[in-house]
Give the backbone structure.
Amino acid sequence: MPFKTPMSFRILLACFLYGSSAICHVLASDRTDKAEIAVVNLSNRDPEIQRKALMSLLDQDQIGVVPDSALEPLLVLVKSKDSIIRARAVQALGILGSAYLGRTEPIFISALDDEHDVAVEAAIATGRLKIESSVPRLSKMSERKDPVERHFAADALSRIGTTEARAAYLKYVAGNLPALIDELDSNNMSIAADADVVISRINAGLKKLGLQDTPEGRAALTAKEIAQKKSKERWSREFGLNVPK
C-alpha cells in the first residue's frame, strides 16, 4: 500500500509550494480518500464496521461526496437487520440523487413503512427527490401517532407538490394545528418550542404550495401569530427579558 502523508502535513506542504489556494484542493482530495475507504468498509461483514463506514460517508463535511461506487453495497445494507444501518443506508442513497431512482425508488417507498429512523430518512429522500409515487404512503405516514414521522411526511408532501400531495398536506395541517396551538401553552419549554418550529414549517409549506389563502392557510397564519406572542412571553418569563412587541 502506498504511503500517505498525514493530512496536516499535506496542507502545510500545499501552502508552501502553491499558496493558500491549494488548501481547498487538498481538503477535497482528503474527503474523497475517506469516502473511498468508507465504501470499501461498507462490504465488511461486521455490523459495527458497517455503521462506522456509513457515518464516515455521511460525515457533515462530506455531504454530497457519496461516490457512485457506494451504490451496490448500500443496496445490500438497506436489507440489514440493524435499523440504524438501514436508516443510514437510506440516507446515503438519498444523497446519491435521482440518477439511480430506477433502483432506489422502490426502496424509499418500502422504507416509509419501516422503523422510526428508517421511515424518517425515507421521507426526507422522497421529498428531496420529489418522488410522486410515494405520495399515498406519505399521506398515511402523515396521519401516524408519532409526531416526528407525521411532520417529516408532511414536509415531503409539501416538496412534492402534486395535486394529491397538496390535498394530503391540507388534511395534515387541519388535523395537527389545534394540538400544536395547545402545546404552545405547555409548561415544558422544549415542547412549546418544538410546536413553534412545526407551526413555522407548516406556514413555509403552505407558502411553497401557494395555499396561504385557503382556510387551512389562514388558520396556520393565525397559529404563527399566536406562536410568536407565546414565544415572547416564554422568553420574558424564563429569562426576565423585555422582548419588544
